[in-house]
Amino acid sequence: xxxxxxxxxxxxxxxxxxxxxxxxxxxxxxxxxxxxxxxxxxxxxxxxxxxxxxxxxxxxxxxxxxxxxxxxxxxxxxxxxxxxxxxxxxxxxxxxxxxxxxxxxxxxxxx
Length: 111
Prior knowledge:
By secondary structure, the chain is mainly β. The protein has no helices and ten strands. 0% of the residues lie in helices and 40% in strands. About 10% of the residues have low confidence.
């Protein structure tokens, strides 16, 4: 949970075999639709983080990321609730959220 006007950052940490690292891609979704990198909501650091600047109540939803290395993929989701401004006397809501994904492919030595 975050309050409106906060900046919200989601992390999608994906790993893969070193041979597939160059192919690793992360895609972000909100309510099952791809997130565009425009305006207040944007992916940073090669897609590994999603930042919502100056969050609004309308930014609440189910956010997810999918990591793929071109052979395999994995996904994770998190529900984000943006509340209105905190009550008088409360500086801000306290929140911490991290989302981890690991994409792994088994190593098969050449024959």
